[in-house]
Structure formats: structure tokens, C-alpha cells
Records
---
Amino acid sequence: MKQFSYLLLGGVTLLALACSQPPEDVLVDSFEGMINSETVDFGSSENSSLSVSAGKEQKICGQQSLKIEYELKPSGYMWIARGYGLDVGGAGKWEVQPQDIAWKKYNAISVQVYGSNSSGVIAFDLKDKGGELWRFIIDDDFSGWKEVVCPLKEFFPRGDWQPDTAERNEKLDFPVLSFQFEPRLPGKGTYYFDCVKLTYIK
Ligand SMILES: [Ca+2]
């Protein structure tokens, strides 16, 4: 009986340990393969300009990153999106389908950003199942690669603009279907992005 108790205790301990392990990160997008207007949904207001390409010279995950070169005018805007339900159908090139991700196990999304220490900001948006856009602000206050970890609870529903069709319930509905980057500092610049991951932070 005593042996059985020890066995049971051991089993319970193992189970507790297994349950307390954080889930493995999920690599959502690493921007491999063709990078162009058929695989990235991007654009800008008329007064600004933007190009996207495969960043072979700077990368963290795989052979290349997402490189963007932009010129943003003070009243301008732009976006660079990847995922599903976008105008560009071919932008659905994630490493894993949104519906196959156990979203509720994760509490943060991380992205590798190659900063230029411009004091600018890059908006990082998630579009949820209902089409509502959620925003996190990345400060470009570093040079070179940095893993920027964005806790999901720090995303806020965008107040400046939402798609007409968005279900604006102020709830982050899973699955998230796409993400986008928006440089916000007027001027010229280059950014690289790589390794969009779902992660669990303590
Ligand atoms: Ca990559």
C-alpha cells in the first residue's frame, strides 16, 4: 500500500510538472519563399511609397526576412500584412493555419525586428476572427535585430480606423487571421521583420 502511495505521489508530481511546462512556441510566419505583391498585402496612401522584398542580407529564421523600404509623408499611411482573409489571397503563407493553433495556450506574440534607432514607432496590428484590428506599438529605439515580445493583453482595439465589416466587440476573438506592420514616423527608412511567433511569457 505504501509503495502504491509513493507511486501515486510520483505520478501526480510528474503530471503537475508536465502541466506547468509552458507550451512550445509556434512559428507563425518566417517570410520564406517569394516576397512580392502576390504574397504580401501592402500599400500606402498616394503621397507615400513602399516596397517589399525578401531580405536575404538580414535574417533570423530560415533564409530571408521580410524587408520593407518606405517613404512616409506626414499625412500618409501604409500597411504590410500577411495572413488570411486579406485582399491579396496569396498573403496566406503562414507556417501553420490559424485554425490549427491553440491560441488560448499563448499570451504573447513575438517578432524579430531589425531596428534603425530612429525614435520612430511601428504599429503591429492583429486582425481577429471578427475582423477587428488590435494594435501594439513597437518603439524603434534599438539598432539591429531584437526580439520584441508583445503581450496579447497589451494590444488595444484601434480607435482611429476599423474595417467597415469588423465586429467591433472589443474582444480579441480567436483565431487571429492576419497581422500587419505600419511604420508611423514620417521619413525614409528600411525595416526587416522575421520570426513571428506565438509564445507564453510568465
Ligand atoms: Ca525568415
---
Amino acid sequence: MTFSRRNLSAASLKFMDIFQLKYPIVQAPTDGPATAPLAIAVCNAGCMGALPLTWVSPEMSYQRIQEVKAHTKGTFFANFVLNFIPDALDQAIAAGIEVVQFSWGLPSSYIIDKLRRNRIKMGIQVASRQGAIQALALEPDYLVCQGMEAGGHVQAAQPLARALQEVLYVAQDIPVAASGGISDAKSIDKYLDLGAAAVVMGSRFVATQESYAHPLYKKALVDSAAEDTVYSVCLNRGWPNATHRMLRNSTFNMWEAAGYPQAGYRPGENDIVAQDELDGSLFQRYSNNVPIQSTTGDVMALGPYAGMGIDAIQDIPTVEALITRLWIED
Ligand SMILES: Cc1cc2nc3c(=O)[nH]c(=O)nc-3n(C[C@H](O)[C@H](O)[C@H](O)COP(=O)(O)O)c2cc1C
């Protein structure tokens, strides 16, 4: 164990003990960029890995879990966004997943029974006191508290520090991981000091060697600042009316210049801007897909999601180098 740099709280030590971690750092589920190699690297660096499976087929989900298990003994979770049906949950269980983390909704008692029968630990993302009270009634093993600084789809409606205070107040001895805008040692310290048991990083892990994000998207994360992020419902195709934070791009600029019209009246709405060279899918402007390595075309016109911690993203390191540096940085 090498956590001499910080005096970790009892909450952090408990979280690290439950999940057998070296550091109280959790990978955020970040859709396409977060495939098996990133989760493996995060686990092998002593943190908790993530496999977002909401939009991954059951067969592919099974394979990804098996791949991670074959390359690490570390802990990782499968993530399901409950605005969508968790089609891959049964295959994830069959593949031996040990932790499942839900966001944007609460699991049904049917799902919870299934997890408990298989001794699977459960995390739930919340963003307010009320959301936390509802989630705690389901007896989760941990909560994630998201703040509005987060990149990607933002369930939160208030800044992380305030949301965390509310959630910690009701969570009592259930560990709470803080998520949104965390990319450097200073922000890790800040939220651990505020009482979070762990911190969650999304955008920071997207800009690493092992992430499957498109190189132009990784470079944009390095080159951009927090003020280049926009928070809106612009990318309405695929997940209508869900707020998200992303880098300002051509799609957002066109929509803004036209006065933010609703779907059906947006400029360039029927343009095909990009495609996936592996499965041939075509992406229209305003689709919510993330630019990944198999995306071709005007990739940055899709969803270059980014949180407000990107000022601290200045390179594209390996995960191992990143974690070592974050832990020793002053
Ligand atoms: C590219 C990208 C994709 C995301 N996809 C998901 C997802 O599939 N499920 C989910 O619960 N959250 C998703 N999020 C939100 C993250 O889980 C997390 O809340 C966010 O990354 C934290 O903020 P940060 O990026 O500033 O670290 C995504 C975020 C990004 C940047």
C-alpha cells in the first residue's frame, strides 16, 4: 500500500478495503472510449475500473468482461444508464461481473434481487439529497455523487461541492465517491477533504494512451479549457432532452447561431457527418455518439464530451504514469 502522501479518512480506507484498491480513485463510465484495455490499465494501476455497457450488445459485453478478468485481478464495475433498458445485464452476470453501477435512475427490485442472488455489489449515481435518500432505501454498497462540472451526460443540477455536502449528510456510513471536474491532485484532495470516500475521473481517463477515444478528441481535451465546454441538450439524437457537457464544436455553433431551435428545425440536421468504419453505422449531426478510434469523417462534429477539470489535462499519458503522478503531485 502506498498511500503515505495523504492521510486518508476512515471512509476512504473502508472503500479501498471493500474493493481491494490501492488508491481511492474510480474510473467513470465513459461510453465508447472506455473499452477493456482502459479498464485493465486502471485496475492494474490500483484503482477501480469501469466498463460502460448500456450501448454495448450482450455478446460484446460478455467478451469485454472476460477480457478484463483475464488481464487483471483488480475490481471493476459494469455501468448501466437506466434511462435505457439494461439489455446486457444478464450476460454481464453470466460473465462473472462483481460490481454493477447504475446512473440516471434507480434499479427495480427485480434487478436488485438478481444482483444480490449473485453476490454482486451495487453502486448508484445520485446528484442531490432527495436522489440519495431514494437510492439509500435500496441499500447500495456505495453511492456516486455527480456534480454539474461533469463531462458527458449530466444527471446533476448543482455543483459537486454542494451536492456532495447534501449527499454525505444522508449517506452516513455508506461510502460516497465524488464525480465531476476532477482531473488533478488538487481536486482529488479537495473532495477527499470534503468527505468523499473516493474520487471519480472521466475526462482525465479519456485522455490517456489506453483509452479508445479518437486521437483528435484526445488532443482537443489537452488543447481546450473549462470555458470551452458547453452545457446543453444540443446532441438530442440517441438520448433526447438529456443535458450534457461537451467541447464547443461545429454542431453546437450552428445550433447556437440559429437560436437553439428544437429538433426538426435545426440547421444541418440531416447531414451525415461521420461513420463507424467497423460496423458501417452512419452518424447524423446532433447524434450523441462519442468520437472513437473507429469513427471516420468529421469526428469532432459528434460528441466530444468534456468536464470542467480539463484545464489540468495537458498530456496523454499512460494510466500508470498518470496515477503515479497524481498521487505524488503537490
Ligand atoms: C465521453 C464520456 C462518456 C460518458 N458516458 C457515460 C456513460 O456511459 N454512463 C454514465 O453513467 N456516465 C457517463 N459519462 C459521465 C461520467 O460517468 C462522469 O459523470 C463524468 O465523466 C465525470 O466528470 P469528468 O469528465 O469531469 O471527470 C460520460 C462522460 C464522458 C466524458
